[in-house]
Amino acid sequence: MKRLLTVSICLLTLITSTVFAQEQKMGEIRGDFQTDFQLYQEDSLIGAPPVPEKFLMNGYLNLSYTKGDFSAGMRYEAYYNALLGFDPRYKGNGIASRWASYKHKDFEITAGNFYEQFGGGTLLRSYEDRSLGIDNSIDGFKIIYSPVSGIYLKGLVGQHRYFFDKGQGIVRGADAEINLNEMFEKWKDKSLRLTFGGSFVSKYQTDKDPIYNLPENVGAFAGRVTMQYKKINMFSEYAYKINDPSAINKQIYKDGQALFLSGSYSTKGFSALLSLKRIDNMNFRSDRTATGNMLQINYLPSLTRPHAYSLSAFYPYATQANGETAVQGQVTYKIPKNTKLGGKYGTDITLNFSRVHDIQRNAINDTISIGQSGTLGYTSPFLKIGDELFFQDFNLAFGRRLNKNLRLIAEYVYIVYNPEVIEGHAGNMVHAHTGVLDLTLKLKNKKSIRCELQHLYTEQDEGNWAMALIEFAVAPKWSFGVQDIYNYGNSNSDKRLHYYLLSFSYTHNSSRMAISYGKQREGIVCVGGVCRNVPASNGLLVSVTTNF
Amino acid sequence: MKKTILLFIAISAIISSCDVIEPPYTTTNTGQDTTTNQVVQKVYVEYFTGHKCINCPTEAAQLKALKSIYGDKLVFISIHSGAFATPSAPNYLVDYRTITGNELDANFDVTTISVPNSLVNRKQYEGDVVLPSAAWGGAIAAELLRMPQAAICLNPTLSGNSIELKAGIKPLAQIEGTFMISAYIVEDSIMSWQKNNNIEIGPTPDITDYYHRYVLRTSMNGTFGDTLFCPVAMPTDSFNINYSTPADPTWNTSKLYVVCFIYNKETDEVLQVEMKKIK
Q1: Per-residue pLDDT averaged across B200-212, rounded?
Q2: How far is A143 from A155, CA to CA, in rounded Å?
Q3: Which homologous superfamily does the CATH classification assign to the domain defined by B39-148+184-219+250-274?
């Protein structure tokens, strides 16, 4: 690995110097750095685990080189050691990815690490999300080809990245997409836009298990339709997977299915969205023993609203790949300006509702219990919804400029949260009501003051919380903030703690430095239904990013 | 056109890549060695768990299934460590955590990844040392294919409240490196509360009379043991060790076992393990 790193750095230095020497005639280099480091203080009161190193760091460097149809790149990563909450197997440093690609007209080929998504990702999505510690890039070959206008074919083979190594399984996939409006001349100007797609993905992993007869090749396929007609958009995708016993589904041999349906209508000042989802045993990983966020082939997004405010985001939802039925609806309306209700500047209203249940699971027969390992597990009628509630979110948000310089956002969120299912530990169903007030006052000379007041009421879990934040910014460079989150309603009086946080950020051109000092409560961070646990911590966090 | 044909061939090859498994889904291999006078390779599993870990009874059942296949060739101990092992009122007041368990957890980064997980001979299997349940079977099977390189003979006794151990270690081949010896005390079948989410195993969300198997109680010679030999041991060599440790009065001495294993100090990999009941 060290040799590879040295060679890569030498090559890049050589390329860089050559490029600059020849006044960029040889191509273009782009890149970005990011380093996050944290100095930890012991704090047993908030449950912060001891950090023997005291100081932890995650660092990333992306470099890419482009010349004409050719491009190449690499990513260097360093973890000394990984920040709390990230998988400790991210350790040391190394070249996390490297790739070369050639694209000419309708043909593109990539060797090395690449990211890809088939359709909505129900069958295959390879992506990076640093905030979650996810990088399931595929190391192998990828070909994209468009034989005629409107037809797009993709094929790939490779292995997932697994920390600084590769996963055990081999992923093979193919995808075809037909866009009728691009394909047929007479469809080009039609209001109806139609796209059809189909995918097939298979993984290979040897079977060495002494108990189970495991499938070494597991295949899955999916079909999708995207339709757009004037102001209406519709998307549907169905996926099916053959028997795939794994650590996640507790070694059951049932096939898997997923169905996504989404429709939206959008016009000036109004939009409406309705989405439905059913997942049944659709965890799909290149290694059947993998858990956590590692080695995932597919991506199953949650049909819930991602909340931005601290207390509203206390109870996020994580997609349950073993089975769930979800519905989400959202209506956004802008009350016109200069009306009695809308005020001088208009008022934005967003109403969102989502609810997630288990799927209906029936025993196969009298002798096999539901989900029993080494069996088909259960049967599940496709249109029946299970009784157990996993999650519900009702939220209403208002946004309004009160005058030229003052803007108000108000939000109410009511969440019902099943910790046993979502977090995997015992606990009562949480009913949390959260109110948020966010006021931003613009001052002279690009200065502004923002104030957040939040309150969460619940009789379960850790009880009530209150939060206040005040932030002063000088756009576009400086920002200073002070916040306190107070768990004043904890039933244990010893745990009625304050989580103070001071923050500062400075932005200069494409570089940004952010510093925060204070306490962070234990919680979960989720992006699109994929989550990671964040342990409590107390200390100084510095983050530096730059692009070039 | 050539590109299209190539893609078509590739897609066809991928589509044919499906193995549909028909019942029975499990094998009938017992794996048990019936020979008695022969030294066999044994495999050592350190199972990290916690009484508040809701998934653990299901995973422990997996370990029991493997134990039923491999019998005495599989030696496992349960190490309670991490957030799911902390005591809490009103029902989870027992503290099964130990200094040894906590140090092992910190050293191998087990519970920070997830719980439950296991170490199988503290050896990397398919890229990982910390293994989830689905990997245990493969890792154990792979380890048991190795030829035994050492034999361990244990003679534990209980004298008053003192546990005494006399052990003899005999290399069966030339072994190079620094090798350590560790001796742990475990208590079997401790009945207490355990969180559970599997009705197949027991009541949910709490099993009030759960039997915790082979729970690590203490180490006789420190978490990481003592040096047994360095830099080489020959088949003509033999090593004898003596350890003693006090038995805690809360332990059920009739359920105590000693687990003794040899491991490579550089790689952490366990070479051989033996387990014997004390009383």
Answers
A1: 91
A2: 5
A3: Glutaredoxin (3.40.30.10)
